[in-house]
Design a protein that fits this description.
six-stranded antiparallel β-sheet; Jelly Rolls; elongated; 2 domains; single chain; 3% helix; mainly beta
């Protein structure tokens, strides 16, 4: 359900001088048109930069390691689906120094690891018991190895019910442990605790060695470019040809830009939600409202991205606004209790070129 949104304060005439000074900082100058075909018919085009409405709005919990888990000497609590499950010393690298049980014997580095053996072609999993608040972490990092390339995923359960599952990652074959990280954005919207973590292998490799499980918290600004920072290339996990530059807009931190409006112009941009922050059942949309100094206003709501990993093109006509300073406010509305974010890219104001009239003889 959408939270009530307060209407932005109108631009007062006394602010006109200040707004005029702000235009230069907000990218109000002319810029050459990009190669995008959507802007090919633009007579005039200016790029804009978003800024946070309120200083310090993105001060949030920093990145942290919430918990680190190691296979116990008695492997029974870490149940495994395999023909053999045991905990020997396994090959390690210098990166594992400091881990519990790390030893160096005759020049060989070793560390305790849970070994699960299963015939190739048969899926396998390791079940790790825990009691952790679901919303306290959104990423799982495994220190793991396998004799052949293996496809791994991670699932979190509460009371036997799966509440989050990661995308599969490929673990490259290695004798020594490697770090594989899984993003689980859905956990941010789960209330209560999770009580089991499952590491699931597709069964391409005959064996799997699990050395460490780390539960991590990463702030959204680690996944989405900060609003006040420079626009960065954002990858939606698909073709590199469709990476676009943008900045983040957050459900608890509206963003704005002040610019000089001209008759007949349009505000254009694109939106997307990177997979690392997309909530499966999100109903959030991006509300954009543009207001001139006299209080006249135009508004529209646009897809924020959601589960579809693609860029959404958007435009908002500015007809009805008086020429002069205007403010565009970007708000992510309809988010639930969990903090959400989307990316706004290629923000620009353009004036479509009028089609030429056919000559009359």
């Amino acid at each position: 359900m959408s939270r009530p949104q307060s209407a932005p304060a109108p631009l007062r005439p006394s602010l006109l001088a200040g707004l005029a000074l702000a235009l230069a900082a907000c990218g109000g100058g002319e810029a050459p048109a990009p190669a995008a075909s959507a802007d090919a018919n633009a007579a005039h085009l200016r790029t804009l930069a978003l800024h946070l409405v309120q200083e310090g709005a993105l001060a949030a919990r920093p990145a942290e390691v919430v918990a680190t888990l190691y296979p116990p000497a008695d492997v029974a609590p870490w149940s495994g689906q395999g023909e053999r499950v045991f905990r020997p010393l396994v090959p390690a690298s210098a990166e594992e120094r400091g881990l519990p049980g790390f030893v160096e014997q005759d020049g060989r580095l070793q560390v305790p690891g849970l070994v699960l053996l299963q015939p190739e072609g048969q899926p396998r999993e390791v079940r790790v018991p825990l009691r952790v608040a679901a919303a306290s972490f959104d990423r799982v990092r495994l220190r793991v190895s396998a004799p052949k390339d293996e496809a791994l995923s991670v699932a979190l359960l509460a009371g036997g019910r799966e509440v989050a599952r990661s995308e599969a990652q490929t673990l490259r074959a290695s004798q020594e442990p490697k770090l594989v990280t899984f993003d689980l954005p859905a956990l941010r919207a789960v209330s209560g605790e999770v009580d089991e973590l499952r590491v699931v292998g597709a069964g391409r490799a005959q064996g799997l060695v699990l050395v460490e499980v780390a539960l991590l918290w990463q702030p959204l600004t680690d996944y989405v470019p900060a609003t006040d920072g420079p626009a960065r290339l954002v990858d939606l996990g698909g073709s590199e040809l469709d990476q676009r530059r943008g900045v983040g807009v957050f459900s608890d931190a509206p963003a704005e830009v002040v610019f000089e409006a001209r008759a007949g112009e349009e505000l254009r941009f694109c939106t997307a939600t990177p997979p690392a922050v997309a909530l499966p059942d999100s109903t959030a949309t991006l509300r954009v409202s543009v207001e001139d100094a006299a209080g006249a206003r135009v508004e529209g709501e646009f897809p924020a991205g959601g589960a579809r990993l693609e860029w959404h093109e958007a435009k908002l006509g500015l007809a009805g606004l008086a020429p002069g300073p205007a403010r565009a406010l970007f708000e992510l509305v309809g988010a639930g209790a969990a903090r959400e974010a989307c990316v706004v890219g290629e923000l620009r104001v353009l004036q479509p070129r009028r089609p030429r009239r056919p000559c009359c003889w």
